[in-house]
Amino acid sequence: ILRYQGKKRFIAELSGWSRVRFLKEIFPDARFIHIVRDGRAVTNSLIHVNYWRGWQGIHNWRWGIPKTNYISLLEKYDYSFTAMAAVQWSMLVENIRLETTKLNSNDFLLIRYEDLVARPREETLRCTKFCGVEENLSRFERHLSMAIKTQIIDTNSVTHRIPPWRSNFSESDIKMLNEIMANELAQFGYN
To answer: What is the pLDDT of residues 93-151, one digit of tens each?
Structure first.
């Protein structure tokens, strides 16, 4: 792939279940960047799109049957779609976290989406240095400066296509989300 593209690094975006071990097996020099977003914002996004498979219930979504601790929380909240979206985020980031702990620390970088939005240049440079890509290339600088000039919308606090989670959810919804996602929110510094 690299030879064909004439590039130093192949970059791909994947979501869903972690495929870190599989990818590391076939690409031994692979490095992984996990861009994580506040689970409450992700939940808010999921419940506002028609392609989310959670609308069909946990027996028809593609994430499998959740562990018993998640089932208990879903039962507590009457299998509400908001609770299901929160469980989905928790399951996936827990899976990614567990899989990436098996990597050498030099092969994994965690970036919080909110930090990327707040400091696009600094966070992007962290990523390029991590990947071993030269950040002083003129082509890279053009792309980076264009990305910085383009206003990155902080959808956690500004209405874009859907309302920000803080204004969209009720106090009881936020309490529920904080309970369902407590461990994962804390691990990523979302207090």
So the answer is: 999 999 999 999 999 999 999 998 888 888 888 988 898 876 666 766 776 777 666 66
Task: Quote the CA–CA distance of 73 and 95 in Å, as a whole number.
Answer: 18
pLDDT in tens, 154-170: 555 655 566 788 889 99
- Alpha helical stretches, state H, 13-160: 20-26, 39-46, 68-76, 81-100, 113-118, 120-131, 138-149
pTM of the model: 0.85
Answer yes or no: are the C-beta atoms of 111 and 138 closer than 8 Å: no
Nearest to 182 by CA among 85, 77, 87: 87
CA distance 160 to 162: 6
As given in the structure block, the two tokens for residue 51 are 């392609």
CB atoms within 10 A of CB 67: 12
Rounded to the nearest 5 degrees, what angle is found at the Cα of 3, between the Cα atoms of 13 and 22?
40
Using a 10 angstrom Cβ sphere, with 0-12 exposed, 13-18 middle and 19 or more buried, the burial of residue 151 is exposed
Burial class, 62, CB count within 10 angstroms (exposed 0-12 / middle 13-18 / buried 19+)? exposed
Helix (H) or strand (E) holding 108: strand 108-112
Position 129, amino acid: K
